[in-house]
Amino acid sequence: MHEPILHHYPSSSFAEKVRLILGFKQLSWHSVTIPRVMPKPDLLALTGGYRRTPVLQVGADIYGDSALIARRLEAEKSTPALFPEGQEFTVASLAAWADGALFLHAASLAFQPEAVAQRFAQSPPGTLKAFVEDRAALFSGGIFDRLPLEQARQQWPTLMARLERQLAHADGDYLFGAPSLADFAVAHPLWLLRAMPLTSVLVDAWPAVAAWLDRVLDFGHGSSSELSAAEAIEIARAATPAPLPAGPDIEGSSWRIGQRVTVAATDYGVEPVEGELLHAGLEELILRREDPRAGLLHVHLPRLGFRIEGR
Prior knowledge:
Blueprint: E1 5-8, H1 13-24, E2 28-33, H2 41-47, E3 55-58, E4 61-64, H3 66-76, H4 88-110, H5 113-119, H6 127-138, H7 149-169, H8 181-194, H9 197-204, H10 207-217, E5 223-226, H11 229-238, E6 260-265, E7 273-280, E8 284-291, E9 295-302, E10 306-310
Parallel strand pairs: 1-2, 2-5, 4-9
Antiparallel strand pairs: 1-3, 3-4, 6-7, 6-10, 7-8, 8-9
C-alpha cells in the first residue's frame, strides 16, 4: 500500500483544500514541493502535461484536480465522510460552485495590486514578473476569465452575507451540520484572503463566517513527511498502477476505450494530457501513458469540466 504523495506549494489555495481534507481524515502523506510557476519538469513527468496544483500521487496512479483528489481520498478512508449520506448532490454542487465562482472572486481580491506588492515584497527580483506572466498563460485558452477587481469588490458582500445566513441556520457547526467537502471547498478561497492583512478583513468582518473558518482550519493537515521530486518519480517507476475500477464505461460519440485521446480542462490550465483511454466512468477518466523517467502511469482526471478528443 502506497501512502499518498501530494505535489503542491504552500501558498496554493487548492492545495490547502486538499491538505485540510488530509487533516480531516487524519491521513499520513508525503509532501513534494513544486514550483509556483512553470516550468515544472518533474511534475509533468508524472502528469504528462497537466500543470495545475495540487496533484496527488498514489504509487503509479496520478490524480489531477482537487475535486477528483477528494473522491480518491474518500476511497482511501471513507470515514469521516466528505459526502454525508443523503447530501451527496448538495455537497458536490456547492463545492463545485466554491471552486469556480467563489474562488474567482477571492483570487481577484487576493491578487489586487496592493496585496500582490505585499505578497512579493521579500521575493527575489523578477519573481513578481514571472508570476504575473505565468498566471496570464494559465488563464489563456479556457472559458474562465479573471474577474475584474471592481466587480469582485462589488459582489463580495453579497456572497459573504449569504454564507453568514447559511451558517446562522445550520444544524451544527458546519455548512450542512456535519463537516463535508463543501466546507473545505468554501474555506480555501477564504483562507487565501486571510493570508494578507489587506484582505483578511473581507473574511473577518463576518463573525459567523470567521468562526466557521477557524473551525475548518483547525482540522489541520494530518501527518506529513518531506519527499523529493526525484524520490516521488522513483516510487512511480517502481510501482504498478492499481486495477481499473469496476463498472461500465460510458463512451463518447467520437472516442472509445482503448483509443489514443487527449484530455484537457475547459476552464483554465488547459494543457492536454495524451494517452490511451483505459476507463471512462461517471466521475473519472483514466489514461495510460509512459514516461522515460517515471515509467508506466495511470493518469486520472475528472470527467466533469474536462474535454476528451480522439487522436
